[in-house]
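Take a record.
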Amino acid sequence: METLLGLCIGIGLSAACGFRVFVPLLVMSLAAIMGWFEPMKGFEWLAMPSVCIALGFATLCEIGAYYIPWVDNMLDTIATPAAMVAGTLTTMAVSSGEMSQFASWAAAIIVGGGTATAVQMSTVAARGVSTATTGGIANPVLSTGEWIGAFVLSILAFLVPVLVVVLGIVAMIWFVRWIKAKKNAVRSDMV
Protein backbone atom coordinates (compact mmCIF):
# COMPACT_ATOMS: atom_id res chain seq x y z
CA MET A 1 0.00 0.00 0.00
CA GLU A 2 2.88 2.34 0.79
CA THR A 3 4.27 1.77 -2.71
CA LEU A 4 0.96 2.66 -4.34
CA LEU A 5 0.61 5.79 -2.20
CA GLY A 6 4.16 6.85 -3.08
CA LEU A 7 3.42 6.39 -6.78
CA CYS A 8 0.23 8.45 -6.46
CA ILE A 9 2.16 11.27 -4.79
CA GLY A 10 4.83 10.94 -7.47
CA ILE A 11 2.27 11.12 -10.28
CA GLY A 12 0.74 14.28 -8.78
CA LEU A 13 4.13 15.93 -8.34
CA SER A 14 5.21 14.84 -11.82
CA ALA A 15 2.09 16.33 -13.37
CA ALA A 16 2.92 19.58 -11.55
CA CYS A 17 6.44 19.39 -13.04
CA GLY A 18 4.78 19.42 -16.45
CA PHE A 19 3.31 22.83 -15.62
CA ARG A 20 6.42 24.32 -13.99
CA VAL A 21 9.66 22.43 -13.42
CA PHE A 22 10.78 23.99 -10.15
CA VAL A 23 7.48 24.50 -8.31
CA PRO A 24 7.01 20.86 -7.17
CA LEU A 25 10.65 20.63 -6.11
CA LEU A 26 10.20 23.81 -4.05
CA VAL A 27 7.04 22.45 -2.44
CA MET A 28 8.85 19.17 -1.68
CA SER A 29 11.77 21.07 -0.17
CA LEU A 30 9.49 23.20 2.01
CA ALA A 31 7.58 20.09 3.13
CA ALA A 32 10.83 18.31 3.97
CA ILE A 33 12.16 21.27 5.97
CA MET A 34 8.89 21.52 7.91
CA GLY A 35 8.95 17.80 8.63
CA TRP A 36 5.80 16.99 6.66
CA PHE A 37 7.67 14.80 4.21
CA GLU A 38 10.71 12.60 4.51
CA PRO A 39 12.57 12.19 1.22
CA MET A 40 13.90 8.80 0.24
CA LYS A 41 17.54 7.94 0.83
CA GLY A 42 19.72 9.93 -1.54
CA PHE A 43 17.24 12.82 -1.71
CA GLU A 44 17.92 14.26 1.76
CA TRP A 45 19.34 17.33 0.02
CA LEU A 46 15.73 18.47 -0.47
CA ALA A 47 15.58 19.26 3.27
CA MET A 48 18.55 21.66 3.17
CA PRO A 49 17.61 25.34 3.62
CA SER A 50 20.16 26.43 1.00
CA VAL A 51 18.53 24.09 -1.55
CA CYS A 52 15.11 25.49 -0.65
CA ILE A 53 16.36 29.05 -1.20
CA ALA A 54 17.92 28.08 -4.54
CA LEU A 55 14.71 26.35 -5.63
CA GLY A 56 12.71 29.42 -4.56
CA PHE A 57 14.92 31.66 -6.69
CA ALA A 58 14.75 29.26 -9.64
CA THR A 59 10.95 29.10 -9.29
CA LEU A 60 10.62 32.89 -9.35
CA CYS A 61 12.90 33.13 -12.41
CA GLU A 62 10.98 30.40 -14.23
CA ILE A 63 7.57 31.93 -13.46
CA GLY A 64 8.78 35.41 -14.45
CA ALA A 65 10.36 34.25 -17.70
CA TYR A 66 7.08 32.77 -18.89
CA TYR A 67 5.57 36.28 -18.89
CA ILE A 68 8.08 37.56 -21.46
CA PRO A 69 6.68 37.28 -25.00
CA TRP A 70 8.43 34.74 -27.23
CA VAL A 71 10.74 33.76 -24.36
CA ASP A 72 7.90 31.56 -23.11
CA ASN A 73 7.91 29.60 -26.36
CA MET A 74 11.70 29.25 -26.29
CA LEU A 75 11.56 28.07 -22.68
CA ASP A 76 9.28 25.24 -23.72
CA THR A 77 12.15 23.70 -25.71
CA ILE A 78 14.21 23.54 -22.52
CA ALA A 79 11.31 22.83 -20.15
CA THR A 80 10.14 19.70 -21.97
CA PRO A 81 13.22 17.56 -21.24
CA ALA A 82 13.68 19.31 -17.88
CA ALA A 83 10.11 18.40 -16.90
CA MET A 84 10.82 14.76 -17.71
CA VAL A 85 13.91 14.79 -15.49
CA ALA A 86 12.12 16.66 -12.69
CA GLY A 87 9.13 14.31 -12.91
CA THR A 88 11.47 11.34 -12.62
CA LEU A 89 13.28 12.86 -9.63
CA THR A 90 10.11 13.84 -7.77
CA THR A 91 8.66 10.37 -8.21
CA MET A 92 11.90 8.74 -7.10
CA ALA A 93 12.13 11.03 -4.04
CA VAL A 94 8.72 9.85 -2.79
CA SER A 95 8.93 6.21 -3.88
CA SER A 96 8.70 3.48 -1.31
CA GLY A 97 11.63 1.57 0.08
CA GLU A 98 9.63 -1.62 -0.55
CA MET A 99 10.73 -1.73 -4.20
CA SER A 100 14.19 -2.61 -5.43
CA GLN A 101 16.44 0.21 -6.62
CA PHE A 102 15.95 -0.87 -10.24
CA ALA A 103 12.15 -1.07 -9.92
CA SER A 104 12.03 2.31 -8.18
CA TRP A 105 14.03 4.01 -10.94
CA ALA A 106 12.09 2.22 -13.68
CA ALA A 107 8.77 3.32 -12.16
CA ALA A 108 10.09 6.85 -11.64
CA ILE A 109 11.23 7.15 -15.26
CA ILE A 110 8.13 5.58 -16.79
CA VAL A 111 5.43 6.95 -14.49
CA GLY A 112 7.02 10.20 -13.28
CA GLY A 113 8.90 11.18 -16.41
CA GLY A 114 6.02 10.08 -18.64
CA THR A 115 3.43 12.02 -16.67
CA ALA A 116 5.52 15.20 -16.59
CA THR A 117 6.24 14.94 -20.31
CA ALA A 118 2.57 14.40 -21.19
CA VAL A 119 1.49 17.44 -19.17
CA GLN A 120 4.36 19.55 -20.52
CA MET A 121 3.50 18.62 -24.11
CA SER A 122 -0.11 19.67 -23.54
CA THR A 123 1.05 23.06 -22.22
CA VAL A 124 3.34 23.43 -25.26
CA ALA A 125 0.37 22.71 -27.53
CA ALA A 126 -1.83 25.18 -25.66
CA ARG A 127 0.84 27.87 -25.84
CA GLY A 128 1.33 27.20 -29.54
CA VAL A 129 -2.39 27.60 -30.20
CA SER A 130 -2.47 30.74 -28.06
CA THR A 131 0.51 32.22 -29.88
CA ALA A 132 -0.93 31.38 -33.30
CA THR A 133 -4.42 32.69 -32.56
CA THR A 134 -3.68 35.72 -30.36
CA GLY A 135 -0.11 36.58 -31.32
CA GLY A 136 0.94 35.66 -27.78
CA ILE A 137 -1.35 38.16 -26.05
CA ALA A 138 -3.18 35.37 -24.16
CA ASN A 139 0.04 33.57 -23.17
CA PRO A 140 0.34 35.37 -19.80
CA VAL A 141 -3.12 34.09 -18.88
CA LEU A 142 -1.96 30.54 -19.69
CA SER A 143 1.26 31.09 -17.74
CA THR A 144 -0.67 32.26 -14.69
CA GLY A 145 -2.92 29.21 -14.82
CA GLU A 146 0.09 26.92 -15.22
CA TRP A 147 2.06 28.13 -12.21
CA ILE A 148 -1.03 28.30 -10.01
CA GLY A 149 -1.93 24.80 -11.18
CA ALA A 150 1.60 23.61 -10.39
CA PHE A 151 1.42 24.96 -6.81
CA VAL A 152 -2.07 23.62 -6.15
CA LEU A 153 -1.31 20.23 -7.70
CA SER A 154 1.94 19.93 -5.72
CA ILE A 155 0.18 20.60 -2.44
CA LEU A 156 -2.78 18.34 -3.27
CA ALA A 157 -0.37 15.54 -4.24
CA PHE A 158 0.70 15.40 -0.59
CA LEU A 159 -2.77 15.93 0.90
CA VAL A 160 -5.00 13.76 -1.34
CA PRO A 161 -2.73 11.80 -3.70
CA VAL A 162 -5.27 9.20 -4.83
CA LEU A 163 -7.83 11.89 -5.69
CA VAL A 164 -5.19 13.76 -7.72
CA VAL A 165 -4.48 10.63 -9.77
CA VAL A 166 -8.19 9.93 -10.36
CA LEU A 167 -8.81 13.54 -11.40
CA GLY A 168 -5.74 13.40 -13.63
CA ILE A 169 -7.03 10.32 -15.42
CA VAL A 170 -10.45 11.94 -15.88
CA ALA A 171 -8.78 15.11 -17.21
CA MET A 172 -6.68 13.14 -19.69
CA ILE A 173 -9.73 11.24 -20.96
CA TRP A 174 -11.62 14.51 -21.35
CA PHE A 175 -8.63 16.12 -23.12
CA VAL A 176 -8.28 13.24 -25.59
CA ARG A 177 -12.01 13.31 -26.34
CA TRP A 178 -11.89 17.10 -26.80
CA ILE A 179 -8.97 16.79 -29.25
CA LYS A 180 -10.84 14.11 -31.21
CA ALA A 181 -13.97 16.28 -31.33
CA LYS A 182 -11.92 19.23 -32.61
CA LYS A 183 -10.31 17.06 -35.31
CA ASN A 184 -13.72 15.75 -36.36
CA ALA A 185 -15.08 19.32 -36.50
CA VAL A 186 -12.16 20.39 -38.70
CA ARG A 187 -12.72 17.43 -41.00
CA SER A 188 -16.44 18.28 -41.22
CA ASP A 189 -15.62 21.87 -42.12
CA MET A 190 -13.27 20.70 -44.89
CA VAL A 191 -15.94 18.58 -46.54
Observations:
- The two ends are 53 Å apart (CA to CA).
- Residues 2-163 form one domain.
- The chain has a mean pLDDT of 87.
- Residues 22 and 59 are 5 Å apart (CA to CA).
